[in-house]
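Design review, sub-item: ligand-bound model
Attendees: FS, YL, KQ
YL presented the inputs for the magnesium ion complex:
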Amino acid sequence: TRSVYFFGNGSADGTRDMKTILGGKGANLAEMTNLGVPVPPGFTIAAHRCVSYLADGLVDEAFREEVTRALERLEEVSGKRFGDASNPLLVSVRSGASVSMPGMMETILNLGLNDETVEGLAKASGNPRFAYDSYRRFLQMYADVVLGVPIAKFEQLLGSKRVTNGVTTDSELSADALRALVHEYQQLIRFTTGHEFPMDPQVQLWGAIEAVWNSWTLKKAVDYRRVNSIPHTLGTGVNIVSMVFGNMGEDSGTGVAFTRDPSTGERRFYGEFLVNAQGEDVVAGIRTPLHIDDMETMLPAAYTALMATQDRLEKHFRDMQDIEFTVERGTLYLLQTRTGKRTTAAALRIALDMVDEGLISQREAVLRMQPNQLDQLLHPVISSDVRATALAVGLPASPGAASGIVVFDPDVAERRHAAGEQVILVREETTPEDFHGIVAARAVLTARGGMTSHAAVVARGMGKCAIVGCTALEISHEQRSMRIGEHVINEGDWITLDGGTGRVFAGDLPTQPSEVMRVNNGALSAADAPTYRGFAKLMGWADEDRRLRVRANADTPRDARVARNFGAEGIGLCRTEHMFFEGERITAMREMIVARDLGGRRRALEKLLPMQRADFEGIFQAMDGFPVTIRLLDPPLHEFLPHGGEESTMLAQSLGLTRPELARIVAALHETNPMLGHRGCRLGIVYPEITEMQARAIFEAAVRAHRRGIDVRPEIMVPLVSDVSELRHQREIIERAADQVMGVMGERVPYLIGTMIELPRAALTAGEIATEADFFSFGTNDLTQTTFGLSRDDAGRFLPHYIDKGILAEDPFQVLDRKGVGKLISWAVRDGRATRADLKVGICGEHGGEPQSVAFCHEVGFDYVSCSPYRVPVARLAAAHAAL
Ligand code: ADP
Ligand code: MG
Ligand code: MG
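KQ shared the predicted structure:
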């Protein structure tokens, strides 16, 4: 198969659709070339070469031949020759996988320079300073990436050079100083590696290609893929691109830009650049870059070309682009374009604006929004009544408010996070090596770098708060502290960041709900909330596309209201036991549990009934017109018992028992394996009066609410059924209670009785169970637990190792296991509907708010999913994606 794809002279072998073969960078370089956008010519080595090289370490002859031919073509197109002493072709060797992994792998610039070609470059350009600057950059990058010489050693030599020459920046170093520096670099390489630096450009080229392939397995790259669920099997493409130079003087430069603001989504070109600089100088935060608007006066012709090009690229790719460009002696070149990372608020705004601009359809807008991203809109911000003055203000790179202890080192961040602390990683700037520290931190703060710096891009991508370019910070690594003006902050001190405004505060400040949350709870009107309005509009579009209904798991009227305001269409799970944990109720509950006879139990239940009834009424009201599924008492009884001490003394007193008597009762209730013990419908079977009381409370509440004009639709759910006869038994009690209540109250309301399917035996005998059930709700937490035989409460000790070792691809408690649990579910749906065609089917486990699991529910024909109130928007959007 073909391994090399050329681009240059206005045409390319590849296109944007070939990302899996060429990697994103290569595919888009090809696409830009075909578009006629100025891109320096080059060629791309397909990613499958990386995969095979990493497998066997071999580079075969036929492939070498392909590369040689492409290089010859590049010489032809550029009119320069690789290794030619008078007019040398120089190239960059760049990584680029099919999924963007910014800064995770390696790039080498100025390859092809040696002691002879550098002279040629000096002559050809008439600029020896530039030639030696390029050479020393090449030596340093190549030694770092290919030969493993630590970059810091080069930085040290460069630093001393500045000092001995009495200058403060690299660009002030003269040609002679740089020539001397090149010798020192070469000595350093000889000394560290025991070999001469390779002067043969062919050796350089293959060394660089192999290093790029190997960079696929660098720790930071592997970490990045793990966090972002990118398969390790993709491999990276390698791009060999002829060099253009931003370091040729004051009429040259390099920069990065976004076609729209990545933080707010505002439609304005947003970028940063540096004059007389090369490659990554901007992103690395080595010098603080200039605002793109300044380019208009400094490099006017290139600026005009850039504006036209960015507009063209955005229209062509029909999405916000993140671009890299270089200006060589006034001429603009594009070196990269890709879909830009953005905050959720920006993503919303851009999608809606692009629909208005006629660039994309409503459907595309819905599909572009990733369901899990919506979470970010609910992040808290610093309370508006906090009067603290900011210590410093940096660039607001990624929103959200976060407090934590200051940590200056990524390893320390990882360690203290693992120990349960909230940390904020503070650095001069971050590099891809810091990735694990960013993962561990709640937020990132840097002293240098712009909105396009590494820290900004990575944090934004992870939905973490970040402030960058906060120039007031002076970090001292020896003292493990930083100074901001008069203030000294030590490692371990608390600070608070406001990523939305860029403000840094001392201490642990209180936060308040986000705009979207404040509209939800009525504290803010939608008229004053533009982000909320965008959110609501997009959700409305999503609703037009989805088939699945979305309900919420809510146990209180308050949760029910939050859920409804987020668009929940009913309650899929109301856990009655949660109602017993509050205040005085727990006492009544305990009385019920330790009652020695039926009379005692009934007396306690009579006390509980009005409390339950009031809660149900509130929930019915909040869900007027929508179904409410109420699950009968589920957990093992001893969960409610006193834990000794004061609690036990009081309970014994109120029951007229002695402490030893109470202790005996409690001991008798102890179970060896409570999750498989006396719980769920087993309670209602042994103590039918519990089921009866709960059913009465539900029906009385329903009739009362109905009398107040509320449209009530209770659905009573019997938990932990494994055989149809259990459900039949409970159903009789519930129906009897319904007839009694409605008879006495003289009013009927419609209701359903159904069951949870959360045990394998229930799933397997679903056809029989459906004879007694109006609906099934899959309790996938327990069903996962019982199908895997895996205790959810203990799995934390070993499941992470399973994920690490790749034994399981994902935690089955987070992402529904299609292969096993999913098989039981789809069987149960089919078998159940074979008995009862109109059987309603839903899910109420944690999985109901997880996008991949929602997609599964859609595929197997569920009627609805139910999830936590805060996941309702995620589920609505995921349901739309599943349907599109
Ligand atoms: P990354 O994936 O980390 O962004 P790149 O391969 O894009 O790495 O390159 C790093 C930097 O070098 C970028 O700023 C890019 O624009 C610049 N660069 C790469 N190739 C060339 C080239 N042929 N000429 C000039 N600059 C280049
Ligand atoms: Mg790049
Ligand atoms: Mg359960």
